[in-house]
Amino acid sequence: MDGRVTISGLEKVYGQGAERTKAIEDLNFEVDGGEFVSVVGPSGCGKSTLLYLIAGFLDATEGTISVDGDPINGPGTDRGVVFQDYALFPWRTVYENVTYGLEEDGVPKDERQNIAQKYIDMVDLDGFEDKYPKELSGGMKQRVGIARTLAYEPKILLMDEPFGALDQPLRESLQDQLLDIWSDLGKTALFITHDVEEAVYLSERVLIMTRHPGTKKTVAEIDLDRSGSREEIVTSDDFAHFKNDVWKSLHEETQTEVTL
Amino acid sequence: MLPTPVQGVVNTIVDWIPLGIVVLVWELVSGGIVATDVLPAPATVGAEIVGLFVSGEVFSHLFISLFRVGVGLGLSILVGVLLGVGMARSDPVENFFDIFLSMTYPIPKTALVPLAILWLGVGTKTAILIVFLACLLPIVLNANNAAENVDQNLVWAAQMMGTDERSILYKIVFPATIPEIMTGVRQAVPIAFIALVSAELIASNAGMGYLILTSGQIGNYPTMFANIVIISAVAFVAVRAFEEARGRLLVWT
Q1: CB B253 to CB A100 under 8 A?
Q2: pLDDT digits (tens, 9 = 90+) for A171-202
Q3: Which residues of chain A make contact with B153, given a CB cutoff of 8 A?
Q4: Which CATH number goes with the domain that contains B111?
């Protein structure tokens, strides 16, 4: 399946001279096409930096990132970011936000309309097409953010703590919506979070990163039976077991932080 | 709680009370503490205003003043936005204009009228130049500040959807800075009228400033007061009209 991300020998250094800080060091990792992978790590481990490097917003100091074997060179429409603070264009309505990528791609107007409506419906925002972002709640804004990114059909979804600012019930409903969309559309998903439960619930694999400078500590395979309801999944023994594994591994890293 | 339309009328009346008090005090002082020949009563000035409009002699002056304000302000918006956004996006442009703007900032622009007369002569060009210079800085500063602080995520969001570097400027940076440009223009509108009248008092053969000066010189104080009231009212209406237009344009903020 398309949408494989290969990260090899990745290093990112910010600043120069005495100000020099290494955010990411010698990171090697591969996300398969169509796979859902979460990234967790102590704060300051460079997980957002990693996402922005894959997005092409930042340049790597060393190493390469490839999509389906081709090294990336800046941002591209094969990848789509869902931002933590939504980053909607405030001067555009919901509809105009969702069609932005299609306009840039030169899709004809009536076709844009159909595609936009499909994704607006998918995130349950029909009826809100003509609202401006300021008129929406946080959860609705993020659904617009997701629809905007899905609309131009990138192969890879890069999500930077997209539900971080939302309360628990809303997070859970958006997580389930995201899972439905992901399994329907068959996209590669890379999901940054600091919430272990969220990572385990959503992902097939969880990449746990070390403290500063960030690199791969370990990768947890989350081999869960996902056929049941959310309640059945999160109360299962397997879920508890995977959650404990990831938590312990992450906790070792935060412990080092405290003892230092 | 009163019904909304009634509440609106009450609010409007309350808003105008301070002005009513001023007119009342003016009425009491005129012919009392101060002689009517140097401080004509509000009723006299009111009648004079009506007379000026009925005879039609004020229209040509009002028109020329509005033309000067409009052109001067329009040019300052055009140049101010280009300069402010340009300085934020390009270091050479910023380095070149920064020192120039810092140095000219403290100069009252009306102090340049004599120099402007020397270059452009007495009349419309000088008035426009002074209005332009006086309005330029608030617009440059607001546009520049906004363009420097455009949310990086908005720029990235556009780039990931295929917007190239050059289009970012008018598709993202420009719309993102419009609210602050409007704030700059809002500051510039009253400044424009101040600069206009100042320039016309010194360097003009027409316009409201010229009318104020000449009627004062011949001792026709009711006419002088009438013209001061007219231009003040016009400036007030201009500010309100701009705010109304801004509100409609920026529904998304």
Answers
A1: no
A2: 898 899 898 888 888 899 999 998 888 998 99
A3: 83, 85, 87
A4: 1.10.3720.10
